[in-house]
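Regression test attached.
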Amino acid sequence: MTRFNAWNVFKNGFTGQKSWDRQWRDPVPKKEYDIIIVGGGLHGLATAYYLAKNHNKKNIAVLEKGWIGGGNAGRNTTIVRSNYMMPGNHEFYEHSLKLWEDLSHDLNYNVMFSQRAHVSLFHSPGARDGAARRYNIMRLHGTDAELWDLETLKKNIPHLNYEDARFPIMGAAVQRRAGNARHDSAVWGYARAADSLGVDILQNCEVTGVKRSQNNIESLETSRGTIKAKKVGFAVAGHTSVLWQMAGLGNLPIESHKLQAFVTESIKPLLDHVVVYGVGGAHFYISQSDKGSMVFGGDLDWYKSYAQRGNLPIVQDCAEAAMAIMPCLGRIRLLRHWAGVMDMSMDGSFFICKTPLSNLYLNAGWNYGGFKASPASGWYFADLIANEQPHKHVQNHNLERFEKGINIDERGAGPDPKLHG
Amino acid sequence: MSVALVQIQSCTVDMIRIKCPYCGERDHSEFTYGGDASIKYPALDAPVSEWTKAIFFRENIRGMQKETWHHTNGCRLWLEVERSTITHEIKSVKACHPQIEKITKNKS
């Protein structure tokens, strides 16, 4: 594997870029692996990488139905933040943010992590107090957090609607260390790094059946033949229920919903931060990509669906929200919009846990927040698979928490998956 | 091949249209999605595990499923809709409450 460094970039610049290696191999599936991770998205690849790196595991495969970067890894709005307050969640997401901060060096792949600050607007004294509470909890746990008054906000982000907004902007809750990363780079970087540690990445390898005994999985039927596994991890958020039922395990506290995202034409630098606007029924987040496009998204489509395409009322909602806070965007043209399928869980929090089968491990339920979570998700899921024991930060992120009454409901929205936006 | 093409075409419809038995066919934006219509609540004194299953656990079908929709900005009836979660094609719509179904039948 050719490392990315100044010398190699210089050398290849003079030799027609012809001596770079493949980013990852295209191996033939073996008959048996020690550990198989189903799902070659960010979470699956990160898990395989940390299994090999942190736990020195060998003989690992990642099974991907399509191609690397073709699923939800390529369908998000690339926001990274750790402004959570529930026990378990804030430690988890803070660890994830710390991993993001060093990810480019760790993977030897530029994930273009840009800590441009995540600015969450508030529009009423009640919302300000709520934000103050949440951000104080973050500070007590060592995460950076601050409140900006209107003057500071105006100085930093001059283009918002401070004049005649229906809900006047009062200030913002800010996490300066949050920001954006490049989604393709992250997934390619993890694939390349995992591959260089000997992980087999099997693309076009769809799991079509699960052969199991009473208490464990024996092998997986795939579109590239039967593969035996000593341990299996599911990391297929969006379609977790489908695979779960293929393994004969029944129901999960998950519904699949779709979330849209939008990209406009490129414009000159306009917005240096990630801006979030949530008031009344609206929920809206926007940032500007390195190419100059405005990247934004809003609410779920509000009904259960596995279709990877969005509906038009949400396009309108998002456009209205954009106009409400940044009227200067009125003439910008939309280039693309798309939808990704989310595992929306019953309390809005994820699952990294053991399952009723002794050699099956579950990584699922990422709701809106899968992208930023992926490094820590891989980290703790690898830890669970290697040590057979959940780390204390994810000890309650299991399927039993509902029966125990210890739901991790960050939003306090109750058992209705579509409300955990 | 022609079957596949038809499926792709039906996939391109972005707005779901629901035939409300009382109001007629309307855009889905008039309705609020409820959830899985197959859920049956257990008896009040049933063990916690049964209540947990009914409240938190879902089959999350990929395909045709029965679900509830509320005609929030219309007649405010709760409807039971049979809809594909892949293509969004709707197979049937009826009022959840059997008594109301009698009324809507008379209406048509």
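Expected vs. actual: identical. The longest strand of chain A covers residues 254-266.
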